[in-house]
């Protein structure tokens, strides 16, 4: 059993990015600039945005944090998006989700210029991704592809079972892994809350991707011997013994599933870190105009 080390892989990729930034600087070029919009005071969102800004500093990117009160109107948020669309100094930006209930997330995503949509949430990027055209691939699926590629995990002809059908993880990773590509060529089963016998489906997986948001949902007897497990879950569960009062667990019961796995991602220290690093990779692509020349 090999634990896929998201921390080590992130550091390796961030070093590669930092070297590219140094080369851009040395050549007198403009350093990549990521902006993030944070609305409200959701502690998890604050932590995520904080780690994105710190990661920018680590690789030498410029970053801008636009913070607004939860009471901001949809119109005001849309005008911030428009300003960032127009700002030539900003290469890419994200609007941290979730947004307060009175704001239509889809409307905000649609307002982002696809050329600056480094989260890859705009339907133009999603559509381009689905058709194998150059696109910003959303950060979590991109991070998963990096993990599979850099650990040389074979995907060709494998049966991949995805649990969860969100727009951000389950649906795009299903499409990506089924495509004809270096990391791809899987036969994919996409399962969800209406799937009839879920353990029967997951037991058929050579590669299992858990993205449902239920702590320790996937049990040891739901997987076959030798499975590759990618655990996307980031669940906070109460833990009086920890100083924050909570700890993070994945969607997979690690203790039960790890002994049966050939490879498994831990939580924390797995996919989550790769999500942040992939955002940096997309920002570098935006700055280099790799996707939209
Ligand atoms: C780790 C996210 C749900 C909804 C919106 C490292 C992150 C998380 C965990 C992180 C996530 C989850 C992010 C770990 C960004 C991943 O060590 O396990 C990093 O920062 N993430 C987000 O921006 O929005 C979310 C999950």
Characterize the structure shown.
The chain is of the alpha/beta class and 293 residues long. Helices cover 39% and strands 17% of the residues. The chain contains ten helices and eleven strands. Helix 1 packs parallel to helix 10, helix 2 (43-59) crosses helix 10 (271-287) and helix 6 crosses helix 7. The protein starts with a strand and ends in a 6-residue tail after the last helix. Bound molecules: ligand BQF. Residues 48, 51, 97, 234, 248, 267-270, 272-273, 275-276 line the site of ligand BQF.
Name of the CATH architecture of the largest domain: 3-Layer(aba) Sandwich
Estimated helix fraction = 25-40%
The run of helices and strands is: EHEHEHEHHHEHEHEEEEHEH
User: Roughly how many Å is the radius of gyration?
Assistant: 19 Å
Poorly predicted regions are none
Q: What is the beta-strand fraction?
A: 15-25%
Give the biggest beta sheet.
6 strands, parallel
* CATH homologous superfamily (4th level) name of the largest domain: NAD(P)-binding Rossmann-like Domain
What ligands are attached or bound here? ligand BQF
**Got a strand count?**
11
Compute the number of structural domains.
2
In the sheet with the most strands, the strands line up as 1-11-8-7-5-6
- What is the general shape? globular
**Kindly, what is the distance between the CA atoms of the first and last residues, rounded to a whole number of angstroms?**
42 Å
The CATH C-level class name of the largest domain: Alpha Beta
Could you report the average pLDDT, rounded to the nearest whole number?
98
Quickly give the structural class.
Answer: alpha/beta
Number of helices: 10
> What is the fold-level CATH name, i.e. the topology of the largest domain?
Rossmann fold
